[in-house]
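hiii so my PI (J.) wants the whole complex modelled not just the main chain, which honestly fair. so below is everything: two entries, each one labled with what it is. i double checked the lines twice but i was tired so who knows lol
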Amino acid sequence: MTGKILTANRVDDGLVVFLNGRGEWAEALSEAWLGEHDSTIAEFEDIASAAGAGTEVTDVYLFDAERDGDEFVPAHIRERIRALGPTVRMDLGKQAEGIGGAFNALG
Amino acid sequence: MYRYDEFDHRFVRERTTQFRDQVTRRLSGELTEDEFKPLRLMNGVYLQLHAYMLRVAVPYGTLSAPQMRQLAMIAERYDRGYGHFTTRQNIQYNWPALKDLPDVLDHLAEVEMHAIQTSGNCIRNVTTDQWAGVAADEIADPRPICELLRQWSSLHPEFSFLPRKFKIAVTGAPQDRAAVAVHDIGLHMHRNADGEAGWEVLAGGGQGRTPMIAVTVRDWLPERELLPYLEAVMRVYNLHGRRDNKYKARIKILIHELGAEEFRRQVEEEFARAGTPEVEVEQRELARIAAYFAPPAYEDLQDVSTEFELAKNGNRDFANWAKINVAEHKAPGYAIVNISLKPVDGIPGDATTEEMNLVADLSERYSANEIRITHRQNLVLPYVRKRDLFAVWSALNDAGLAIANLGHLGDIIACPGMDYCALATARSIPIAQDISRKFADLKRQYDVGPLTINISGCINACGHHHVAHIGILGVDKKGKEFYQITLGGASDENASIGKILGPGFSGEEVPDAIEKIIETYIAIRGESETFLQTYRRVGADPFKEALYATA
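here's the output for the full assembly
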């Protein structure tokens, strides 16, 4: 099943975050809320414009992802790298903290 | 080295205090991101793929040992234990938190550094020859002029909101190691018929999506007229540069559209109109600045060092490194040490806190406290006595930093690419790593001879792919990374833009494609003919045939 996930960078430390089902910004992609219906995506757009004007996050946008078992896999390599960390430094980013996901950045 | 005067100190401190207040107001919600973004960019703070990125200016690529130690400390305390040296002779940190950045800027100010004008549509950090002041072929040290330009362009009210960013490169040597022909303004020192040193002023060079070689605006200008002349160039650009289209806003497009002759005419007209009222002041200031760049007190040494010659005979690795990475110095008995930041499988330009501290220690002990950053993402110790070379090499070798590949196949430029950069369309670093592994054998690199491979992860060309002998550009093709190969670029005094060879390759195919290009060169090269000379003699056809004929 494909859908959209709302993502941003946290203002105070800049790290990548994803909107979860409780309306909070989570660090792990696995906790994200995958919007699969037009109504959810419309809601995401409202949340994005409100959040973009606030102090918690910045650069809010949607990306395509699909559900694969327990996790979500971004459609584009750019978003997979963003959810994991640099492919050339596995010791850095979310992948190093164990919150990156089991998928491969290269697809 | 230049030392801040009271004005410089106050100026940087005031800016840091101002930024601290701006960050506080952003975190409290008093400033929106739209309001804050231009303010953070004015202080070198970008938002990248994973986090914020801080770009710190290293004026004309010169650092002292205490400055390098402070950069190492910042990497350790506020980042992830490393920094990335860039093709602009700067350093970037990839993971700083916004809330820490005012403290980071304070720490930079403690050692007379800052991140001002490392972003935005202003005159950026001036770059120069990494061997400035020590190169054997040099006419004069270009850094006093670079520092004068830094002071002139810092917060210059007339040139703070240009149509687009503006980069100036300067070289004081006939061999251009600063790539002046691919900058918005390039300054190249020459002697006139009377033997007086002056400046050739080039303008309109650049890379990015529209690569161009600069045109000569003036072939020789006396130094005392340099600032008023540059003001004339800047004024013509500021008035007529295109503000309607970001992609046509650089000075190269203006010169291309006007034609070099008309651009020259307008500059000369503006130069004549404005006159040169402050020339005397400028000469006094230049003399004051130049005193800071006086060379260290050289010892009176024989040019040949017995210790050095004996050490080479006793250690083949050292002898190779000395041949490849050590350059001729203008003072007898001294040498220029180039430290390659390009180990096999490494990340071009990255240095850890420990590596930065080691280089700082070595510069303190062996190189008059001075270090240079090169636009090829390497480091330089500019004042090493030949008799100390073995000790320097041994310390570097113990740390894995005695990589004897300078100017050869393994010395690859790569931008951060899609592993870090928000603008990138493909990754650069893994391509550099794959190539470095394939050509890990140094003997093979020496057989191939001088060669530059530069890799950019998008059309903005931070990885200088247009001016590489072999250039690689990463693009996105329907969600997949794809790489175009160009041949025949050069950034020296005979600069040229590389030409695309043909259809692109997937990342996995790139190392084999490079291998075929190299094999073709080896098969057809003349005696002691370099890769670039061969390409210029035979053109692209043999390489195209090798790559695509059987495909």
